[in-house]
Amino acid sequence: MKKYLLTGAALAAFTFSAVAPASAEYMKEHRGGTMRILAHAAAGTVDPHINYTLQYWQIYQSLYDGLIAFQKAGGPEGFTKVPDIAEEFPKPTNDGKTYVFKIRKGIKFSNGQELGVKDVVASFQRIFKVSSPTAGGFYSVIVGADKCIKDPKTCTLEGGVVGDEAASTVTINLTRPDAEIFDKLALPHAAILPADSPTTDVGSVPLPGTGAYMMSAYDPNKGMTLTRNPNFKVWSEAAQPDGYPDVVQYDFGPTEEAQVTAVQNGEADWMFDEAPADRLAEMGTKNKDQVHVTPLTAWWYLPMNNKLAPFDNIKARQAVNFAIDRKALVNLFGGPVLASPVCQVLPPGFPGHVDYCPYTKDPGAKWSAPDMEKAKKLVEESGTKGQKVTIIVEDKTVAKSIGVYLQSVLNELGYVAELKPISPDIQFTYIQNTKNNVQISVTQWYQDYPAASDFLNILFGSGSYTPGSDSSINISGYTNKDLDEKMQKALALGVTDQEAANKIWAEVDKTVTDDSAAAAMFTPKHLDFTSKRLGNFQFNYQFYWMVTQSWVQ
Amino acid sequence: MTALVETRSDISRGPWATAFRRLRHDKVAMAALIFFCLILVSCLSAPLYAKWAGVNPFTSTLDATIMLDGKQTAVMEQSTEGLGLGYNPIGPTWQLGNYFLGADNQGRDVMARLLYGGWTSIIIASGATILTLLFATVLGLAAGFFGGVTDMILSRILDILWAFPVYLLAISLSIVMIAHGIDIGPFTIESGSLWLPVFIIGVIYIPYVARPIRGQVLSLRESEFVLAAISLGVPSHRILFRDILPNVTTTLIVFVPLMMALNMLTESALSFLSIGVQPPDASWGTIIQDGQGLLYSRPWVALAPGIAIVITVLALNVLGDGLRDALDPRSKIKLGRG
């Protein structure tokens, strides 16, 4: 059985569900041991209300719980939401603006305190008190949030989050119906923490959680240690199952090359960072049983500044869309096994996605080849030929390769292209700020939760365009009032009829694509490289590899 | 141990001819000079090589194919074994004009880029050397000759500049200037221009040359012929240019190859860090950076420019030593057959 589980993610998932014994038996056989995982660097603060990185969100899954959780299951089942600290999904009342959550009893934090209504209420206030990066985005829909955003220190969310100790309920009141509220409540930023947690960023001091594990040590220069939470008892296998290893040792420091070698030699069980391009062929042959490739709901794209020449001209933007050879871009990313070309915003398999590609030799559902002739004609018609264009990329191998390629394409189109690779630490905020007059850049977007709005509304809604700010995630500066209204309509409709809402999202996706608000390149796939001894690899589509659901003995 | 043997004819030739003769007799230095000239000529032939090979080393050619052993072969190869992961450039073919050193991750001919890169590196190193020597000479002459407040101000400025770790200063200046270039009145350098690394590298090494020049001028100023000129009322500028400058010229000449070598290393380091020569231009530093991601599967992309830097710098250093020996009247080089 163990042998089957080591032979690739897809096969493993199928075999596991078809013939696997009960998880209790697995637990008996494989529980224990120390799992060693690696990353080149830490990902900043360990505060779950503040940290906004995949690296730690993945770890938080076995440390913290929210009212709702994404199911701890492999594959697309990971998108399914389940009640976690809440006993069940509440039915919306008050026209979809009120939710009453019944809080489970008997759940304890890792410090021994029992979780109660006051912890839930305080946790929601804390989201604003610590100025969580998504406080103004995801949670601004809660009544009283506007006051909390203005004055975080005195945040009470009065009328927004109301606790009833006697009934053991927490009522959340919204200013408008929000079809995605459960998704947002299932994110680590809405984790329930002890009411007496500091109301400032805790930095490198781990906070107690209710998960199966606790962070017993953390040094951003060395690593973190996860050990079992002595107060944990399983209340929902789907929301927070027990884990296999006794200890997870997460070490920081080794380069990507060193991480690959460590996993190959069995000195580590998994590496967080992307494997270097020159090791892929070797990994795919010598260590093919240790490689797990899984599609992602993510998007690599070229934001083109819709408000700055030459890309304030739709024909110039369309020209870029027609000119780029998406097959070449896929190859620069690592080849067709690791990415698929796309022309539109919503990734395949995502709610609202309908295959659409107008920017190809034979326009239709799928991309086939670039159309350079058409692209050159469009540039001529736009009257932008000969203009200077600067491409801003992260100074990382893949992004820079794409930048160099793009520079060649723009030069061929008749522009005078210049490439500026800048530090990955600042590139993402740099390209957002309109003061930097970025014309075109290379970037990517990975979903927060499985909803079309997380791509379309966030990346192309007028609400995400804030001139002069480092947090203007609508990098293209694409604003379309009609489309904004359509997106609001879809958001409202989603509360009652998600199918109908998804149809509207498909229309929005088509409009954004037709307007060439950006140039889509490809959807990436995720590659996990694990040690030979690691078993039960499961990839959750929402939070990726479920660390503690794999065993090492 | 060899002894200095100077014949009557050597003395009558004058110091420059003697120095040249000494240099000619220094076989190691001459070998280094010839080697450097060969590298220079090879790099100069970069456009001819690219034309002959039918490649454009500045454009992505991901879908290019070449004839190899009678078969059409893709320059970028998708792995077909195992899981089919990876997309690697072709390795060295060892056939001149046909991706001799293989391709980089954009499908570009590494050999053509190596030659263009060498030319860029030499141009930047030469430009920066000229800039350094020019400013260092002016500052060293002024500080050493005029002394007093002038010397105090100039020397302190040089001390402050030299107090910064050279690479740290170069990196800091590059990071600041790489985004916006330089715009000081009529003096403008655009951000992507090759003149930017020339300027940065040229500036950071000014104290390295100016300080010994100043020391030499200080000593010359106290020499009898200068004191005599001053007492005869010869104007300062005339003393500087007619009496002092010719006496520091030999030092400046010795500095040329040494500074070239130093500047070439600095340029490579900056380009490797993405803050020197900007893509798609090539320099040996940028090619090493391109090769860094291919070190495991295509090591020649990084090794070739690395070897080129080592050889060129070695040649320049050996030439510098030879020049110093040739220009130093106390040097012990055996001349003639005697």
Word description of this protein:
The complex is a heterodimer of chains A (553) and B (338). With 553 residues, chain A is of the alpha+beta class. Chain A is 29% helix and 18% strand. Chain A has helices at residues 2-5, 9-19, 23-30, 54-60, 117-129, 145-150, 181-185, 256-264, 277-286, 314-323, 326-333, 372-382, 397-413, 424-432, 456-460, 481-493, 498-514, and strands at 34-39, 68-70, 81-83, 98-102, 161-164, 169-173, 213-219, 223-228, 247-252, 270-271, 291-295, 298-303, 339-341, 388-394, 416-422, 440-441, 443-446, 518-529, 539-540, 544-545. In chain A, strands 7-8-9-1-10 form a 5-stranded mixed sheet, covered by helices on one side. In chain A, strands 11, 12, 13, 17 and 18 form a 5-stranded antiparallel sheet that branches. A 3-stranded antiparallel sheet of chain A has the order 4-6-5, covered by helices on one side. In chain A, a hairpin with a 3-residue loop joins strand 7 (213-219) and strand 8 (223-228). In chain A, helix 10 (314-323) runs antiparallel to helix 12 (372-382) and helix 16 (481-493) runs antiparallel to helix 17. The model of chain A is unreliable at 1-21 (pLDDT under 50). Chain B contains 13 helices and 6 strands. Chain B is elongated. In chain B, the strands form 3 sheets. Chain B has a two-stranded antiparallel sheet. Chain B has helices at residues 8-13, 15-25, 27-44, 46-53, 110-146, 148-163, 166-180, 195-204, 206-221, 224-231, 236-272, 284-292, 300-327; strands at 65-68, 71-74, 76-78, 87-89, 182-184, 187-189. Residues 1-5 and 333-338 of chain B have low confidence and may be disordered. Chain B is 65% helix and 6% strand. With 338 residues, chain B is mainly alpha-helical. In chain B, a hairpin with an 8-residue loop joins strand 3 and strand 4 (87-89). Classes of the chains: A alpha+beta (553), B mainly alpha (338). The interface between A and B is large, with 42 and 33 residues.
